[in-house]
Amino acid sequence: MDSDDDKLKIAVLGLTGCGGCQLEILNLEPVILDLVEVFELVYFPEAQSENIEGPYDVAFVEGSITTKEEIERIKNIRKETKFLVSFGTCACYGGVQAIRNFGDIEEARKQVYDDDGSHIDALPSTGLDEYVNIDYYMHGCPVDRGEIIDVLSSLLIGKIPEPKHYSVCVECKLAEYVCLLNEGKLCMGPVTNAGCKARCPAVSVTCDGCRGPYDQANIESFIEILKEKKMSSDDILRKFRMYTSWAPRYRGLKVI
Amino acid sequence: MKQSIAIDRFTRVEGHGRLFLELEDSEVKDVQLSIFEGPRLFESFLKGRKYDEVPPFVSRICGICSASHILTGLIAVENAMDIQVSEQTSLLREFLDIGEIVQSNVLHACFLALPDYLGAPSTIALADDHKELVKTSLELKDLGNNIVRIVGGRAVHPITTQIGGFSKIPSKNSLEALENSFKNLKDRALHFIEIFGSLNYPDFERETDFVALKGDKKYEFLNAPLTSTKTGLIEISRYKEYIEEYTPSYSNSKACKRNGKGFMVGALSRMNLNYDLIEDDLKSLIEKTGIEFPNKNPHLISFAQIVEVAHLITRGIEILKELKNTELKPEKNNFEVKEGEGIAVTEAPRGALLHHYKFNDRGLVEYANIITPTSMNNRNIEEDIIAYTPLLQGKSEEEITFELHKLVRAYDPCISCSTHTLQIDLKIK
After folding, report:
1. What pTM, to 2 d.p., does this model score?
2. Which pLDDT does position A4 carry in this prediction?
3. A122 plus A11 within the same structural domain
4. Whole-complex ipTM
């Protein structure tokens, strides 16, 4: 592949996850040909067979860390990358598969699955920042297409995109959707990072908190409100343990 | 002469896999298709979760076929609790599914496989020399995604798909907007049959067991009996007697056998079992290419995917017409949560997908088992490699590696799917 010195060199790759966030880049069909005019995709093994192993100006890394090999891999990528983006909820918080981190390991051991399955190493599932410094977090399961464009546009003009400091509720109210919490449903909007334009409440489905807690979220008082609404501790804890259960502010959460 | 060949990391394949091969005088002594993406242990954390968390959770097994996982999960839960859905819901689900199959088939055929035949590292790199081809590929993929967005609320991990029915019904305006894209793309989708029919596919056929849903009156992805070209009906209530799952010692993914051998699922199996249900105008275009179905060449999986895309555009236009002529009503999903067991099998883009759950009387998951198309295809790919490699005698190691990579890629393996479910003994050090 020809190297073009003027263009930002971009890497897109995945660790343990579903591939959905990387797919959202390919899902930018109407603009993808414009993007490759202004960026150079030097590493994107999911989409191309010629890939350069660094250095990168920007790396979008999807997926969580679940094996020792991945710990080494993310450390190497960190060394090669100027601006490292945790791309999506798995990379930010360990994703849905982090729920297993709460399980009783001994109990899991007792479950005899495959006699020949013992060769596989599985670590607790964590976000990338458990092992390396991260320059920017893009939340969401999956990341929002619009946000990908926003971030790329900022980078193009040499700016670091400004993270949002408010909750999904703000976007939900602006769009005038019906408040599901008021209807007695367990909606995570009040504590969840904005940026999705309240996509789930927009179709009458409660927010599952897939973007994680926003920086000023008052989690304790949110839980108090849920209890006042007669929601059970089990249901509340289960809702916090969906896609962002291993977020530092959620992993030690106890609901009594 | 002994020789070993390794592809350390597949490219243009979803997820992380490698291939190791040991040859002696062109004879394959050992073949290992190894998936090294981290295991995700879905079963271990689905246990104890609520029935209505199952569909959105299993969606996260795979970003490319998230709608298929949701739909299969929904049907399995509904089977377990005897929940019936309305015709409107069935029709909208079929439409949503069409969106995903089109998106995923085009992604594989046009973006992952096609560069192998046009000598490019990626389809994007083809944009200058094959402008129309790339443009149409992008538009077709966009159409598939837009269907899922309009019906499901989001292209990856749709939201509106709830147990018993949709949380929100698409507006007439949004459906009308799709109608134009369908009409606009129909002829070009037909033309793709000619283009993909003229690619220089390797001359390789192997007899195997082709497994897919077999429709009666129409080409089915969601609701038809699972059928084998070798043994006929596969009773899904007793699937464990028909499909043997095992974990190779060299892989993080399960693999499957039937009667001790690999079998194939996916677009080629579907086409082999359902060719008579394809529209006549498509058949005459296919005949002109000289390609015949049933067909035993795995490289033609992408051709079968392109034929499906053309068929689904016709079917999509029909559904749109039907949706236009009916008054779409919001639905109340009233049902009773109860103890039960449910199994569902559908056609995900890459082939048969099976979900199996047991719930207790509070609707909590007591048992979960998911068999993905890529797990089903694993052994068949290895068997193909054993049969195909001797035909490459005389070629350089680089050429052999390229040809084997191309063969693996032809299957469109989805590695995220295949590592979702590995049930293992957890080792924390």
Report:
1. 0.94
2. 61
3. yes
4. 0.93
